[in-house]
Amino acid sequence: MKEARRRFTQSEYSERQHKTRQAMQTAGLDLLIVYDPANMNWLTGYDAWSFYTHQCVVIGSDDTLFWYGRGIDRVGAGLTTDLPDTDIIAYPDHYVQSPDIHPMEYLADILKQKQLHTKQIGIEKDNYYFSARAAESLYNTLPDATFSDATALVNWQRAVKSSQELSYMRTAGSIIGKVYEHILDVVTPDMRKNELAAEISHAAITGTPDAYGDYTSIVPLIGLREEAATSHMTWDNEVLGHDSGMFIEIAAAHARYHCPCSRTLYLGTPTPQYRDVEKVINECIEVSLEKFKPGVTCGEVASTFFNTLKKHGYEKENRCGYPIGLSYPPDWGERTMSLRTSDTTVLEENMTLHFMPALWLEGWGFETTESIVVTESGGECLSHVPRELLVKD
Amino acid sequence: MKEARRRFTQSEYSERQHKTRQAMQTAGLDLLIVYDPANMNWLTGYDAWSFYTHQCVVIGSDDTLFWYGRGIDRVGAGLTTDLPDTDIIAYPDHYVQSPDIHPMEYLADILKQKQLHTKQIGIEKDNYYFSARAAESLYNTLPDATFSDATALVNWQRAVKSSQELSYMRTAGSIIGKVYEHILDVVTPDMRKNELAAEISHAAITGTPDAYGDYTSIVPLIGLREEAATSHMTWDNEVLGHDSGMFIEIAAAHARYHCPCSRTLYLGTPTPQYRDVEKVINECIEVSLEKFKPGVTCGEVASTFFNTLKKHGYEKENRCGYPIGLSYPPDWGERTMSLRTSDTTVLEENMTLHFMPALWLEGWGFETTESIVVTESGGECLSHVPRELLVKD
Questions:
Q1: pLDDT exceeds cutoff 90 at A262
Q2: Interface test with A, best of B147, B194, B254, B338 (most A CBs within 10 A)
Q3: Do A235 and B212 make contact, defined as CB atoms within 8 angstroms?
Q4: B78-87: long-range contacts (C-beta < 8 A, 24 or more apart)?
Q5: Using 50, 70 and 90 to split pLDDT, how confident is the model at B1?
Q6: For strand A120-123 and strand A31-34, is the pairing parallel, antiparallel, or unpaired?
Q7: Spatial separation of the C-alpha atoms in residues B342 and A274, rounded to whole Å
Q8: What is the reported pLDDT for B393?
Q9: Which H, E and C letters describe chain A, residue by residue?
Q10: Are B234 and A213 within 8 A, CB to CB?
Q11: pLDDT of residue A71
Q12: What is the pLDDT of residues B229-264, one digit of tens each?
């Protein structure tokens, strides 16, 4: 690994690999093919925007551990991981995006050479970038292996954060604070949505004097006027306008660790409707924050939130949060537990979640969200953006 | 569709659906489940950052055409498509990222209700976001259907661009011109990589006075010094430095249409090595550009390039280009043809490709790339960034 790029000690990586091997043992796996780019990074440090072609980290219950990817990315694997050269294995370029041959077929040959082709192999059947064809290529070329689904096996190992991970997430929290200060400095009713997105991106990547901003796994989502009734809209050149409300769903990132934080912004004098929801959501957050303690279940947190919301006459038909940390596009969530009433996962100290009591209502919407670390005394926010409806006249 | 968001006429969308249905007929398909977000957009206009959860467009050889996705995205589907409400079908939120139930199981029930469960169904086995579990959920819940691989079926229909599509790509070309002007204005040896990335992002999203910049499907890739020997590295806070070279691999986008354009930048007085490669690559581009004519194969273009390069003593072991147009993260390529010697695809008028004669050498690298439209008189560049080593003293 290029030393300047080292984000964690070698012993932290070793511990992660050890934890993963233990979980593999419990699941009866000899070998795990790890496709999720965040899992690849967490296990080895590998960091590059190369996940648009097939690549993986292969980890064994023995000491097997190698990076597998496209030839033009192998130098990058050397710069960002501690793997020896012999454990950085590349496939030839004509396997890239070919209808006739698949990189997983070439991997099958490598597993055969390594006498790993008769093993119990875990694959991430529903993690990003592991396609149906990748799976079927493996099934066809490794007839003597047994495959089982290990989706989220590594993701679950990532749930409780180390102190270095928390430190990166707090750094991301400082950056998102700067981003909101900048938004309030520059936003005007004449501004266009894309200009606001440009300002947000610039501030988030610039970071603070002490820490650079990394790219975030989701681009700024700006729900302006009627678009606030839905999710995941991005931007065009629409003018923000006078007397208009919008939610801004954004994050900052540092060393791939994220701190999402959404706020609602009103340009003009907010209508009573906005002020009412602001009050309700803030009460919901206050009450729910206390629940982010070790021993409490995700379902209990969710129920606390949904009940408080209902008391005020509002309903929300979707989950109110999910775990966060290290991630790559298309999602900054970790895809393990969810804050929904049916989720029985028990919270542990230093788990980190994006508490997301967003309301997408009839013709408008409201978002105030917080990124939270679970502590003995309840949820601690990773960022300190004023928890209020942001107003600019 | 919200009228201000209309990017193409209704008849252009109808034509695309018609072309797709014809290709389905040739492939013997009654139904096609379209997961690739770019294909979903191309067929219906749907545009949102919602592809981190399972979603698709289902198109039939009859008049079946519906959007299927998560409940919180259905209003967005109404704002960005012309589909009637009855053809915007959502699954309940507890299907999101659940280990026990899968959105494709819920889709299977819908297909049964619509009497489409015994059909010949195409699935995009190797397009983005169609996971192994999505496929297996369909196989298990639709035992009376027959499935076949339709990866890239829609992507191929997108290869030849309409005049409106070309107009958007030229707009993206104007934006990338502005981005490079801005880079040369602001870059200094004291600047950090993340600061350069922030400036690039700001300029690309701001766009021109006439046109907004959309987010690009890949973030700025900055290959500084030894990182230029590899691909897909992003940024940290390393100082660019005096007498240092770097490639900048970026694009601009408008209405999701992309124009990638890479250049190499030298801060200081370029070494003879840089000047030599600059001359070689420019000759390679000149010679190859003439080949981007209807009737020429991808293989012939690639051979022309590789032979010219070899004449000068350089070798490149990876493809030198790929088709571009409408796209979403993680890739701005269309994943159909490739500019490699073995590819026999015949170029047609108004196909668009990113010609990518990048050299990743021993300890350094060089990129000058062009986005090109195929015309009767050879390749026409979609942007007009000076084709030279960019130098700032």
A1: yes
A2: B194
A3: yes
A4: B79/A226, B79/A227, B79/A230, B79/A233, B79/B1, B79/B2, B79/B5, B80/B1, B80/B2, B80/B5, B80/B45, B80/B46, B80/B47, B80/B48, B81/B1, B81/B44, B81/B45, B81/B46, B82/B1, B82/B10, B82/B13, B82/B44, B82/B45, B83/B44
A5: confident
A6: parallel
A7: 61
A8: 86
A9: CCHHHCCCCHHHHHHHHHHHHHHHHHCCCCEEEECCHHHHHHHHCCCCCCCCCCCEEEEECCCCEEEEEEHHHHHHHHHHCCCCHHHEEEECHHHCCCCCCCHHHHHHHHHHHCCCCCCEEEECCCCCCCEHHHHHHHHHHCCCCEEEECCCHHHHHCCECCHHHHHHHHHHHHHHHHHHHHHHHHCCCCCEHHHHHHHHHHHHHHCECCECCECCCCCCEEEEHHHHHCCCCCCCCCECCCCEEEEEEEEEEECCEEEEEEEEEEECCCCHHHHHHHHHHHHHHHHHHCCCCCCCEHHHHHHHHHHHHHHCCCCCCCCCEEEECECCCCCCECCCCCCCCCCCCECCCCEEEEECCCEECCCCEECCCEEEECCCCCCEECCCCCCCCEEEC
A10: no
A11: 96
A12: 899 999 999 999 999 999 999 999 999 999 999 999
Nearest to A130 among B131, B193, B201 (CB): B131
Do A212 and B230 lie within an 8 Å CB cutoff?
A: no
Nearest CA in chain B to A80: B233
Report chain B's mean pLDDT, rounded to a whole number: 97
User: Which positions in chain B touch A335 (Cβ < 8 Å)?
Assistant: 97
Give the position of tokens 């707009």: B171
Q: Using CA atoms, how far apart are residues A166 and A257, in angstroms rounded to an integer?
A: 9
Residues 6+ apart with CB under 8 A from B70: B50, B53, B54, B55, B90, B91, B93, B95, B96, B103
Domains and CATH numbers, chain B: 3-157 (3.40.350.10), 163-392 (3.90.230.10)
**A21 confidence band (pLDDT: 50, 70, 90):** very high
Mutate to test the interface with A, among B129, B133, B168 (most CBs of A within 10 A): B133
| Percent of chain A scoring above 90 in pLDDT | 95
The pLDDT tens digits of the residues spanning B183-210 come to: 999 999 999 999 999 999 999 999 999 9
- The CA dihedral of B94, B99, B100, B105, to the nearest 10 degrees, is 70
Which pLDDT belongs to residue A3? 80
B140 min Cα distance to partner chain A (Å): 14
Residue B86, pLDDT > 80, answer yes
ipTM of this predicted structure: 0.97
Chain Cα centroid distance, residue A94? 32
Structure tokens at B357: 């004669």
pLDDT of residue B7 exceeding 90: yes
Model confidence at A307: pLDDT above 90: yes
The pLDDT-based confidence of A156 (bands split at 50, 70, 90) is very high
Q: Quick check: B2 pLDDT over 80?
A: no
Say yes or no to pLDDT of A393 above 90. Answer: no
* Average pLDDT rounded to a whole number, residues A52-68: 98
Q: Looking at chain B, which residue has its C-alpha nearest residue A215?
A: B219
- Angle (CA) B171-B173-B179 rounded to 5° is 110
Query: To the nearest whole angstrom, how far is the Cα of A332 from the nearest Cα of chain B?
Result: 9
Average pLDDT over residues B68-95: 96
Selected residue of A97, A104, A318 to mutate for chain B interface (largest B Cβ count, 10 A): A97
Residue B276 has pLDDT above 90, yes or no: yes
* Shortest CA distance from A104: residue in chain B: B126
Within 8 A of A152 by CB-CB distance, chain B residues are 99
Whether residues B76 and A335 touch (CB distance < 8 A) is answered with no
Please tell me the distance in Å from B203's CA to the nearest CA on chain A: 7
